[in-house]
Specification:
This protein has 174 residues and is mainly alpha-helical. The protein has 8 helices and 2 strands, in the order ββαααααααα. The protein has one domain. The chain is globular.
Amino acid sequence: MLREQFTKTKKIGKINKIFMNTKYTNIYNNLIKLTTNKFLYKSLDKQDTFNDRLNLFLIHFAFFLKVFKKTENEKKLQEIYDFNFRQLELSIREIGYGDQSINKKMKDYINVFHAIVSEIHFWDDLDNNRKEAIISKFLQNFTNIKELVVYFEEFKDNLSKKTLNFFLKSVSNQ
């Protein structure tokens, strides 16, 4: 059991009741909601796959960390990072992969995420051609990269207008 994922809340007799830690659930749900936005798939040239959705999730999450890294507590952001990757791992387990496959896939996903973080580090200083190259590198099956660059610019700008607590407490309507 992933200890951080669960919180013991009550001991009833000799039995400990265990409940899921939901401290960062709203952030995760916001990112999932954004990732399932139908507009994003409009330029996909085939049926979306788990990897397409995962890469969109990771790009959203990378921008989220980039924006709040400047203003928020590192410890809290690390907890959010850990929570989100645990949630991804649970999703992969639900799909039915075995432990060895999960470990390899999680390593791959974490490497992709860190590549995204590295690529968008200087996002504000890049011209549109470079931004398009970055987005197309991670969303290879999408055809209208220019629209996605505009979308992620607006997403980043909207994030910067809100506090981290906003995302901790509510599900966004973006």
